[in-house]
Amino acid sequence: MKKNLLIAGGSRGIGGAIAEIYHRAGHNVYCISRTQASAGKWIKADLSQPEGIQKIANDLNNVPLDALLFLGGVWENNAFTSEYDFLTSSDSETRFVISVNTIAPIELTRAISPNLLMTNNPKAIYIGSLSGLDHLASHEVANTASKFGLRGAVQALMLTSLGLKICFTVINPGNVATEEVINDIQEGRFAPQQPIPIEDVYFTIDWLLSLSPHVSVPEINLIQRRNAQH
Questions:
Q1: Does 228 map to a domain?
Q2: What HEC string does the chain produce?
Q3: Is residue 208 part of a domain?
Q4: Residue 172: what pLDDT?
Q5: So what family is this one in (predicted)?
Q6: Is the pLDDT of residue 162 over 80?
Q7: What's the pLDDT score for residue 184?
Q8: Which of 144, 167, 169, 211 has its CA at 20 to 30 Å from residue 152's CA atom?
C-alpha cells in the first residue's frame, strides 16, 4: 500500500538513500533539507530554526502522514577522526549540533503530529547512534550528548498522549555505508571496516512500518559485525 512519508535529512546520507528507495517503490515522499532533496517532493527548510519547523507544518497543511522518518543529523568539524578536538570546538557549533539532532526532532514531532494522527497506524522513527548508548560514547561531545538527548526525548514522547496513537522508535546504528562513509574509509579518515549496508537500515525501517499498532519497538541497535564475511 502506498504511504505518505516525511523524511528529515533527505538530501544526502542515510536520509537521502532511504528517500530514493521509497520514492522508487512508488510511495509519496516528502523530503526536508536545506539543499536539493534526492527524491520526492522537496520541502526546503532549516531544522535548526523555529521558522523552518513552522514552514514544514505549513507546507504539509492537511497531508496525512503514515510516518515521520527523522534520518538527518549533523556533527562537529573533524568528528570521528583523530583531528577532532573538544577544546577547539566552538560554543556555536555545540549549540547547532544539539539544535538539529535533539531539539529539532522534538519540535518537528509536535508540529506535524496532527498530520500523523490523520492515519490509522502512524510511526515516528528516528536515527540515533551507538554513541548515544551507555558506555559506548564517542569523544565528539556535542554529537554524543545530542544522541543521548534524542533517546531520552523519544522515551518521553512515548509517555505523552501522542504515545497512545503513534509508535515511536529510535534506531541506533554503527557506521552505515553511505557515500560519505565509504569515501571516509577509502581516503583513510576512518579505520578499515565493513559498514552496515544501507539496505539493512531500509529493511529495518520497512519492518517497523509493517507492524500493527498493537506492538511497540522503542529501540533497535544495529552493530557492525567484526570479521563479517562479505
A1: no
A2: CCCEEEEECCCCHHHHHHHHHHHHCCCEEEEEECCCCCCCEEEECCCCCHHHHHHHHHHHCCCCCCEEEECCCCCCCCCCCCCCCHHHCCHHHHHHHHHHHHHHHHHHHHHHHHHHCCCCCCEEEEECCHHHCCCCCCCCHHHHHHHHHHHHHHHHHCCCHHHHCCEEEEEEECCECCHHHHHHHHCCCCCCCCCECHHHHHHHHHHHHHCCCCCCCCEEEECCCCCCCC
A3: yes
A4: 98
A5: Belongs to the short-chain dehydrogenases/reductases (SDR) family.
A6: yes
A7: 85
A8: 211
The angle subtended at Cα 161 by Cα 30 and Cα 216, nearest 5°, is: 70
- Write down the pTM of the prediction: 0.94
* Bridge partners of residue 7, in order along the sequence: 31, 69
- 154 belongs to a structural domain: yes
Q: Quick check: 143 pLDDT over 90?
A: yes
Domain count within the chain:
1
Grid cell in block for residue 69: 522518518
CATH number at residue 75: 3.40.50.720
pLDDT at residue number 1: 87
User: What mean pLDDT do residues 99-113 have?
Assistant: 97
pLDDT score, position 228? 57
Q: Is residue 119 part of a domain?
A: yes
Q: Which three cell numbers stand for residue 154?
A: 523519544
